[in-house]
Design goal:
single chain; mainly beta; 10-stranded mixed β-sheet; 7-stranded antiparallel β-sheet; globular
């Protein structure tokens, strides 16, 4: 039974409206990117771990789901979140670090880094660190084993256009301290050098699938920005240029966050989850096949971050 509790805790970490802008420029709101519509899920966790009633939010059409029903993106929503339900050996547990919040009389998304714990007297007492995240794609529920965590995420959506920038509103609350913590649930808490940053990542890929279902991609466009300081309220209409082609000689290039990736998963044409391996940089004028976009309250990967690091985002749109 203790093994099952450890497994559950490890798992938990883990259209378009158009309006005119300046001359020669237009914006397109990513569907549901105004964060005004939310799916509200009411889930009952298993009695053996407390039997708590939890409310999870998903970005999509306004509706309520009562019961422990695996979530599938509703209403054509392109957004997935790190709010997940796991079910291992019949035990239901949730992770909740993405919330609906308020902004300018409407709604926005709030993502926070926190410690998720499972405590059962005389049986187990473990904690893991989890970051709040939203992304274009979806999450397959319920998570049923430790190996399913990364494979449950289907990163990216089909997309064949070439926007020049990403624009959104944001607010940041940075956690104190110049170092982070690592909490996996399997070992004691450790310190990780370097302060925590919230992060926004946009990638354009040109993907190919071979006869065996393997997916490779060339990087078409890149935009990455990190946030490490608390803002004095909201920063509206921030705009970040998308860099096309091989950007390794660009002065904005950061290999750690902008380099080619091989750990993201997507479902192939056969419905199987496989890694998307970026094999190189596309020509500067290449047309993509997929768009990846993620906002996260921490940047260091699974189990690493600073509790309290919080990022709010609203009105996510592409600029042409």
């Amino acid at each position: 039974m203790k093994k099952h509790f450890l497994t559950i805790c490890t798992l938990l970490l883990c259209c378009i409206g158009m309006k005119a802008q300046t001359a020669g420029e237009r914006e397109e709101l990513i569907k549901y990117g105004d964060m005004e519509h939310w799916v509200t899920r009411h889930i009952h966790e298993s009695a053996i771990i407390g039997g708590n009633d939890k409310t999870l939010y998903e970005i999509g059409p306004t509706k309520t789901i009562d019961g422990n029903t695996p979530y599938v993106n509703a209403g054509g929503s392109p957004w997935g979140t790190s709010n997940v339900m796991a079910k291992v050996a019949g035990i239901v547990k949730t992770n909740n670090c993405v919330y609906r919040d308020r902004h300018n009389g409407g709604h926005c998304v709030k993502m926070t880094t926190h410690v998720e714990s499972v405590k059962v007297l005389g049986l187990v007492n473990i904690s893991v660190l989890a970051a709040g995240s939203i992304f274009l794609g979806d999450m397959k529920e319920p998570i049923t084993g430790t190996k399913d965590g990364p494979k449950a995420l289907n990163w990216g959506i089909p997309f064949t256009r070439r926007p020049k920038a990403l624009r959104f509103d944001y607010r940041m609350k940075a956690a104190d301290g110049e170092s982070r913590i690592k909490m996996t649930g399997f070992s004691s808490k450790s310190t990780v050098p370097g302060r925590d940053y919230a992060i926004a990542i946009l990638l354009l890929q040109k993907r190919s699938e071979d006869a065996k279902g393997n997916i490779t991609a060339r990087r078409v466009g890149t935009m990455v920005v990190k946030y490490g300081k608390t803002t004095a309220g909201w920063k509206d209409n921030v705009t970040y240029e998308i860099l096309y082609g091989d950007i390794r000689k660009n002065h904005h290039y950061d290999a750690a966050t902008m380099g080619l990736r091989s750990t993201d998963y997507a479902r192939n044409s056969k419905g199987k989850s496989v890694p998307v391996v970026e094999t190189g940089w596309a020509a500067v004028n290449e047309t993509p096949t997929h768009l990846l976009l993620q906002f996260s309250s921490s940047h260091g990967g699974a189990y690493i971050g600073s509790p309290g690091n919080t990022l709010w985002v609203d009105n996510v749109r592409l600029v042409y």
